[in-house]
Amino acid sequence: MFRAIIDNLKGLWSLLVGLSITGRFFLSPQRTTHYPRQVDDPECLASYRGPLELVPADDEGRSRCVSCQMCVKACPGHCLTVVKGDQGKAPKTYLYDFTLCCLCAACVESCPAGAIRFSHRVYLVATSREALHLDLLADLKSRAAKEAR
Ligand code: SF4
Ligand code: SF4
User: Fold this and answer.
1) Please, are residues 110 and 77 in contact by the beta-carbon 8 Å criterion?
2) Distances from the Cα of 83 to the Cαs of 41, 48, 62, 96, in angstroms?
3) Which residue has the higher pLDDT, 36 or 10?
C-alpha cells in the first residue's frame, strides 16, 4: 500500500516536470523558420551547413589558403584535393567532392588560416554526381566577380 502511494507520487512528479517543460517551450518565442518567407533572413541561415567555400582574402578573389594540407588530412571522406601553386603558398588547385562530404566540419576546424567555411547555398541542385565535384578556386573567383558588379 505504502509502496503504491510512493509510486503514484513519483508518477505525478514526473508528469508535472514534463508539463512544466512543455509549458516553458509553449510560452517561449517561436523558433520555427517559415520557409520560404523567412529564408532571406541571414539569421535563419547562420547555422546552415551548405557545401564548403573558400573565404576570400581580398576583393580580387584570392584565397586565404596556404596549401598546408591540414584540411585534406583531417577529412574522413577524402573529399578535398589541394595542390600548391608554383609561386608562394597559394594553391593552384582546390577541388571538393561534395558527394563524399558528410559536413562534419573537421576541415573547417583544422584550417589554421580560416580559409574554408560552410556556405549557405540552400538551392544547390545537380543532375549528375560530376556536377557536385566543385572547383572552389573558380567558385571564389566567380563570387568576387559577382560582388564587383
Ligand atoms: S566537412 Fe568533413 S567530410 Fe566534408 S570536406 Fe570537410 S572534413 Fe571532409
Ligand atoms: S587547412 Fe586551410 S590553409 Fe591548409 S590547405 Fe586546407 S584550406 Fe588551405
Assistant:
1) no
2) 36, 28, 15, 12
3) 10
The pLDDT tens digits of the residues spanning 91-117 come to: 999 999 999 999 999 999 999 999 999
Which residue ranges make up each domain of the chain? Answer: 1-31, 42-148
| Ligand 1 atom at shortest distance from the alpha carbon of 71 | 7
Distance from the CA of 10 to the center of ligand 1, in angstroms? 46
List the one residue out of 105, 42, 102, 44 whose CA is nearest residue 71.
Answer: 105
Q: What is the mean pLDDT of residues 61-81?
A: 96
From the CA of 118, give the closest atom in ligand 1. 1
Domain 42-148 adopts which CATH fold? Alpha-Beta Plaits (3.30.70)
